[in-house]
Amino acid sequence: MSSHNNVLVKKVSSELDIQACLAIRYRVFVEGQNVSIDEEVDGLDSSSDHYLLSLDNLPVGTARVRYVDDDFAKIQRVAILEAWQSRGLGRVLMNFIIEDLKQCSKVKKAKLGAQTYAIPFYEKLGFIVCSDEYLDAGIPHKDMQIEW
Fold first, then answer.
1. Given this model, what pLDDT does residue 70 score?
2. Dihedral, CA atoms, 12, 17, 18, 23, nearest 10 degrees?
3. Which residues contact 86 (CB under 8 A, 6 or more apart)?
4. CA distance 113 to 17
5. pTM of this structure
6. What gap in Å lies between CA 55 and CA 93, rounded to an integer?
7. Taking residues 117-142, what's their average pLDDT?
């Protein structure tokens, strides 16, 4: 667990915590970006690790990680509720996930599909663009990766 003032990030597995993650994703992606619920809830949540970021005990951020090949993890569904964006919470969440992944000796890199507006955010964390632009759920993305 990581704590930063009254910010807490943890890997979660209880039904209640997973529901909080899904609720954040629903508000950010489905309501905020008009992503269809069928694309947002893709059937892969049960085989993913979930992370929840809380501020003053209020769940405001989430992400999930899927272990794709032997040596890399895919970070997906990174979301901070709109009212709490631009406060550095996404950085806290991502740094926690990266540190957590580094504890897993097999995993040597992480990949993610970044919405193009978010590329500078991920570059500051050390991610490098590794694909051309493509559309996912109608939103322009580029794949990025980080190795350690």
1. 79
2. -140
3. none
4. 24
5. 0.94
6. 11
7. 97
